[in-house]
Every structure is written in structure tokens, then in C-alpha cells.
Amino acid sequence: MPVSLTRPLAPEPYAMLPHVASFELVSEDVRHGEPLPDAVQAPPGGDASPQLSWSGFPAATRSFLVNVFDPDAPGVSGFWHWVLVDVPVTTTSLARGAGAPDGTRVPRGSFHVRGDHGLAGYEGAAPPHGDRPHRYYIAVHALDVERLGVTVGAMPGAVSIAGVRHTLARAVLMGTAQR
Length: 179
Hints:
By secondary structure, the chain is mainly β. The protein contains one helix and nine strands; from the N terminus they run ββββββββαβ.
């Protein structure tokens, strides 16, 4: 069955979680609510994770969890494009391309888990051709633990559930993409 262009938008994913404080997240690549640049989209785009910088998180923060999620992907569970775990509290920015699958550009002590594309590392936006614009939520979660307690083999949804239990505050940017 082809993708319907009239199916309703999925709910905003973080609105359904317990309310937490927010802090500032900015990017040289992504502007909230605007189309994602080719550099962070799947091929023929550059397929590089976006540059991110954050500030204003709670003093009790011990680490960060970074993820990119498309709630509008066909199916019932959306699509995880990137999950970076155990980012040290001393890290307040990630360079464009930090999500490279080989893991060499992530902060020491942090690691990727496999996204829904089956590989560790970032996968750029790739909505189905002809579908309406998809929303890509880029979130940095300030956590109250240094280590989330998940392994590199954890699934993105399990990491998200573990993260909710330890989130002090969350910063979110949302970009869109359509093919």
C-alpha cells in the first residue's frame, strides 16, 4: 500500500512525556521549524549530523543524551535517526559530522546505539518521496547520572525510556524535510 499523503501528523513526541525544564539548543545547520539543509539529509545530501551547541542546563546535570527522531515516518513508532549516549557534562557542543558511524568524532566516553536504519551513528533525513514534510526532532537531554546504564547494543526506544527516568531538562530543535 502506498504512503498516504493525507494521513494525520504524529503527535509532538516530547509533549507526551513528563514536563521538565528546558535549556537553549542552537545549531549552525538547523533553524527551528525550517527545512533541513542538504548537508544533514541522507544521500544525495551530505548525511552529516548537524552541528549543535547548548547552554543553560541545570547545575545538577551529570551527562547528556542526544537524539534525532522523526515521528512522521510511516509506521506506528516513528524513526530514530541518531542516539548518542553518555555525553560528558563538560561537552556543550558537537561538530557537524560528530555522528559519523565509526564513532571517532564523539566525545570520549560516549557512544552511538543503532538507529532504526540498523547502524550506529547518524543517518540523515530521508522521508519517502512524495510524502508530506516530515519533522525531525533534535533533542539534548540533561541527565542526572554520568552513565545511563545502557549498552551499545541497546535499542533506541529502550535508551529513550531509560533517559526519561533521568531527564532533568530537555532542549529541542525541529527541522523539516520533504522529497
